[in-house]
Design goal:
This protein is an alpha/beta fold and 150 residues long. It has five helices and seven strands, in the order E-E-E-H-E-E-H-E-H-H-E-H.
Length: 150
């Protein structure tokens, strides 16, 4: 259960996401009896890094002496997740600038929230009422509702 109950006002948006899936929910009920309805679902298939990058890590030669060292391999999996999270923020920013929502409650795991925060625009900073560091994206909507309101 969440640490403190969240009061979700009527028509507020609740965005539940991680690096591969996002649920755009809207409260069709009121703050006392929330009724989250799905507005949109965004998903992307994120294959493991081993399938994304097939080359061995690179090597670099020291400019002085015989030293050699390997270069860390790019984490393509993380790159894809971050690109997906950026696309969520772009969609939310467009909706915020168009005045399509009253406020946003953002629910995501801590690492995803860190990436999302990097892409807050002025309109999003004004719209985001609360951030919740939880991973609820794999739950059915009624469970998300129960966890937020409990």
């Amino acid at each position: 259960m969440s640490a403190k109950p969240v009061k979700i006002e009527q028509d507020e948006w609740v965005i539940v996401c991680d690096g591969a899936k996002a649920l755009f929910l809207q409260n069709a009920g009121d703050s006392k009896f929330p009724n989250l309805q799905t507005r949109e679902v965004m998903e992307q298939e994120v294959p493991p890094t081993s399938e994304l990058g097939t080359d061995k890590p690179g090597r670099s030669h020291s400019s002085v002496g015989p030293g050699r060292s390997s270069v860390q391999q790019t984490d393509f999996h993380t790159q894809q997740e971050e690109e997906f999270l950026r696309s969520i923020m772009a969609k939310l920013d467009a909706a915020a600038q168009a005045g399509q929502m009253k406020a946003i409650i953002l629910v995501a795991p801590p690492r995803a929230l860190g990436v999302l925060r990097q892409h807050y625009t002025h309109a999003l900073k004004q719209a985001i009422r609360e951030e919740i560091q939880k991973d609820y994206v794999k739950m059915p909507v009624y469970e998300i509702e129960k966890h937020l309101a409990a």
